[in-house]
Amino acid sequence: MKATTTNMIIGRDIVIVSMQSWDVEIGSNCKNIAAELAKDNRVLYVNYPLDRITVLRDRKDPKVKKRLSILAKKQKDIEHIGPNLWNLYPRTILESITWLPPGTLYQKLNYLNNSRFSKRIKEAADYLEFKDIIIFNDNLIERGLYLKELLKPASYIYYLRDNLNYNPYHRKHGEKAEKELISKVDVVVANSDFLADYARKYNGHSYMVGQGCEIDLFRDEDDSIPIAEEIASIPSPIIGYIGALTSLRLDIALMIGIAASLPEMNLVLVGPEDEAFEKSALHELENVYFLNKRPPEQLPNFLKGFDVALNPQLVNDLTIGNYPRKIDEYLAMGKPTVSTKTPFMDYFKGDVYLAATLSEYVQMIKKALAENTPERIASRKNTASLHTWAKSVEAIGESYLKSIKNK
Questions:
Q1: If DSSP codes are grouped into helix, strand and coil, which group holds residue 3?
Q2: How far is residue 173's CA from residue 41's CA, in Å, rounded to a whole number?
Q3: For the segment 1-41, what is each residue's pLDDT rounded down to a tens digit?
Q4: DSSP category for residue 289
Q5: Which of 152, 206, 227, 336 could form a disulfide with 368 if both were Cys (CB 3.0 to 4.6 A apart)?
Q6: In the sheet where 206-208 sits, what is the strand order?
């Protein structure tokens, strides 16, 4: 297979498992990595398997309907979605066991889930004639815990891009399972120094590889990206956020405070809301606009209308070490950006205004507007251009080869 990129992993068969299925409706690091790896390798991207609670609760959801149809063998379980790239819908239903207390019963049922999952992966890999596979695990903690023993891959890479142990879904079992998983894989690649340092406590082969941005999607050098109609009618200055509106990650009180403190500006929020956002006082403010979820390819049209882009995240155990993918997207379009200060955000301190309090946010938003010079716009775009998926996957490959060489 002829190499066409700077990939360090070439001519291999790679199985990717992830918390995010291929048909996820938001941006996905893992999908971008899969597409990059597929330029020089054969890649099987495995969707997150169904479990019993999902089938009972969401059986009318179109995605669940499709999976049930595949489970009934009315549709194919493997889809060829691009050169060297396939997508597997596992024909299995796993037991919903996160509610169980830690102990022998949970461990046995989790091993059973891993076994069912592994069986479908092996069948697909055999069908595609994959050999000496590399497993690339994107934050699939409990359901990826025993894949090394069950699938016996040539190598196992764990991609750590979020501190998911503090997500309610993983709270009972995630921390123990992830430490065990990290200790047994061949290499851990993380998208921030914070997460790499955490992983290094349990596996010496743990490296920071950054992450990328779909630069071309947000490139607007010739002013060719039109502003979305929904935002063009909103008076400037517009301060905005693009992404899922979830109370686990975003500071609702801070956002209310920003809107209330800057009545002369309009706060525009583009993304799906969780229940806390739907019930929040943000909906009572005249200068706050909710523009709902939009397809990824339309996001540049909304971002184009922002005067200042925001990342008003909470600082908690879930978010403190994360690399917000939206930061590079904001910078790729040259937008002045104000973000909550975290240890990781120092990585961007030359191009992003950082704030820790409401008063600092208000001050930095005003400063960002006042200092939006052509030179600063060019600097932001240049910074984003350095964070490509090709470079991130190259770093993943270098880390992989270093770990293999040292074992």
A1: coil
A2: 34
A3: 444 556 789 999 999 999 999 998 777 899 999 999 999 99
A4: E
A5: 336
A6: 78-82, 85-88, 42-46, 13-18, 134-138, 155-160, 187-190, 206-208
pTM: 0.87
> Could you report how far apart the first and last alpha carbons of the chain are, in Å?
26
Q: For residue 21, what are the contacts with CB-CB under 8 A and spacing of at least 6? A: 47, 48, 63
Nearest to 305 by CA among 236, 224, 382: 236
For 355, the token pair is 């704030």
Identify the H or E element spanning 309.
Answer: strand 308-311
- Name beta bridge partners: 51: 94
Beta bridge partners of 137: 17, 158
* Segment (H or E) for 13: strand 13-18
Rounded to an integer, what is the distance from CA 144 to the centroid of its chain?
A: 17
Structure tokens at 336: 């002045």
The rounded distance, in Å, linking the Cα atoms of 320 and 343 is 7
202-to-107, 260, 299, 333, 397 alpha-carbon distances in Å: 21, 46, 38, 39, 21
> Which pair of structure tokens corresponds to residue 214?
């779909």
